Amino acid sequence: MTTYLGYRAGDADTAWGGFFDPRMAPLPGHVLDALHHGPQADQTLLDLASAADLLDDGHHATETGYGRLGRGGFTVAVLTEMPGVTPQMWDWWFGWHGSDARRYKLWHPRAHVSARWADGGGDGHYVGRTSLVEEYLGSAYTKAAIRFVPPEQLGLAPHRRGDAVAVCARLGSSELPVDIGWLVHQVRPTAGGAEMRSRFWMGGAHIGVRHGNLLANSMIRPVAARQLPDPRDLMVHCAQEMNHLAAFLPALHARFG
Amino acid sequence: MTTYLGYRAGDADTAWGGFFDPRMAPLPGHVLDALHHGPQADQTLLDLASAADLLDDGHHATETGYGRLGRGGFTVAVLTEMPGVTPQMWDWWFGWHGSDARRYKLWHPRAHVSARWADGGGDGHYVGRTSLVEEYLGSAYTKAAIRFVPPEQLGLAPHRRGDAVAVCARLGSSELPVDIGWLVHQVRPTAGGAEMRSRFWMGGAHIGVRHGNLLANSMIRPVAARQLPDPRDLMVHCAQEMNHLAAFLPALHARFG
Fold it and tell me: Is residue B8 part of a domain?
């Protein structure tokens, strides 16, 4: 199967094709602030072990920003404000987009190349499944396996809590049996819609060989560390895709949800 | 000959000296967007082999931005909107500025240090000639040989096409017989003036030893790659110099063109 960025002739001939828009809005001001700030003090950042703190009311010291963690890893946080969106729309989106590259491309038209489920199945749900994607992070082309896990696994039980939704995944390679990080997208209602609080924990102790052991992990970490994205590229990518999709997610969900 | 940045006592005592202005305008918003975006997916960027696509109507997926290309190289694109400017003014400028450092300094008063033609000649034309310049790219001081080539060499025949002008050059060192890249500045009329679409292809396969062979190229590439500018510095420099000069190019051309 040929993979390529963007839509080519015929790709828009689907019921949802009219939602493909290669023009992306500039980054929100708070993301620019975070880029200008540069790396943050780790004590302002959330540890994976404290992921459950995302269930608390209020906001964290760093809702958008990035910084190094111990042992060579880093974390990225992105806040996306989404008027008119509900958390349930995102829950639907994660179960809907991964079975067709033309859906996946709606999300980030300048970076998303292909998507399919490792189980070969269609849409409808995502927890417990692995999404195999090809995408750019900055200029780096990556072939990733995104294994969606029950939020309970990160202490965020349950999957839906009141009106909030938490999307959690182990991030790894689709070519090698190596995982390199974790992500959480916590989506909760606000007065005018919803806000997404994204967190990535990458590299360092978060690198692991699938079905491996401590020795394999210690050997693979230096190699896998070279495959990590630049934290700025990851922050920009996340902010771009979430803002881009949020602008038409209510309309998309109204038609296909 | 002493070289230095900026004008010193007496340097402005020329017919054009009144145009020297060390104050530079802030970067346009679309250049800031590109800096914030960071490296782009290579599939949104123009290959050197497709340079002739600049002759098409419309705009490319990336008119301002930068990203890595295969084999260690990178490309930079900059769009400069220039009210009141015509493409022919730029054609004149490229033949006029290179014979006197005091002219060259008008263009980027914070980065341009010296300029002379390798043939020792005066002004009037540039295609087929080599401009030897010293300038800063970011904090890096570079001594460059800019060998202007006929646009036909990059598939952009002819030099002037209708009202548009293409300025094309091989970029290299003035101290070593090594080239490190290519540039195109395509200038075409717009409703209110002209727009310049600059493209640089640097490093990787674009490094070559002048009058060398494949073996020399493969040996010199790793060394030459360390001399490459940061793509962000190159993008900023280009946007600054083109916007700066464009603000007074019509007046300069009216007096000296």
Answer: no
Joined tokens for residue A91:
């829950």
Cβ of residue A205 closer than 8 Å to a chain B Cβ: no
Q: What is the pLDDT of residue B2?
A: 83
Token representation of residue A4: 């390529």
Distance (Å, whole) CA A101 – CA A116: 7
Q: Which of B181, B186, B185 is nearest to B229 (CA)?
A: B181
The residue behind tokens 């839509």 is A7
Q: How far is residue B77 from each of residues A205, B74, B160, B200, measured CA to CA in Å?
A: 38, 10, 21, 7
User: Distance (Å, rounded) from C-alpha A86 to C-alpha A166?
Assistant: 13
Say if CB B53 and CB B46 are below 8 A apart. Answer: yes
Cα(B82)–Cα(B183) distance, integer angstroms = 19
- Whether residue A190 lies inside any domain: the answer is yes
Whether A33 maps to a domain, the answer reads no
SS3 A256: helix
Tokens of A129: 């499944």
CATH number at residue A153: 3.30.530.20
Biggest CA–CA distance in chain A, Å, is 50
Read off the amino acid at residue B31. V
Q: What are phi and psi of B154, to 5 degrees?
A: -110, 15
Residue B214: exposure state from Cβ atoms within 10 A (0-12, 13-18, ≥19): exposed
Check residue B70 and give its pLDDT: 76
B125 part of a folded domain? yes
Across the interface, of A31, A139, A240, the residue whose CB is closest to B42 is A139
Check CB contact under 8 Å for B41 and A136: yes
The answer, for B232 touching chain A at a CB cutoff of 8 Å, is no
The closest of B151, B155, B115 to B134, measured between CA atoms, is B115
Identify from A3, A21, A139 which residue to disrupt to test chain B contact, counting B C-beta atoms within 10 A and taking the largest count: A139
- How deeply is B120 buried, as exposed, middle or buried, from its count of CB atoms within 10 A (0-12, 13-18, 19+)? exposed
- Domain range for residue B77? 66-256
Kindly report the backbone phi and psi dihedral angles of residue B115, in degrees, each rounded to the nearest multiple of 5, phi listed first: -155, 140
**DSSP secondary structure letter of residue A154:** G
Angle at A104 between CA A101 and CA A107, to 5 degrees: 150
Query: SS3 for B147?
Result: strand
Q: Are B135 and B112 in contact (CB under 8 A)?
A: yes
Distances (CA, A) of B105 to B82, B100, B111, B183: 20, 9, 8, 20
Calpha distance B47→B68 (Å, rounded) = 11
Q: What is the mean pLDDT of each run of 10 residues along chain A (257 residues)?
A: 91 97 96 98 95 95 94 93 97 97 98 97 95 97 97 82 89 93 97 97 93 82 85 98 98 97
Contact indicator for B248, B15 with CB cutoff of 8 Å? no
Whether B201 shows a pLDDT value over 70: the answer reads: yes
Number of domains comprising chain A: 1
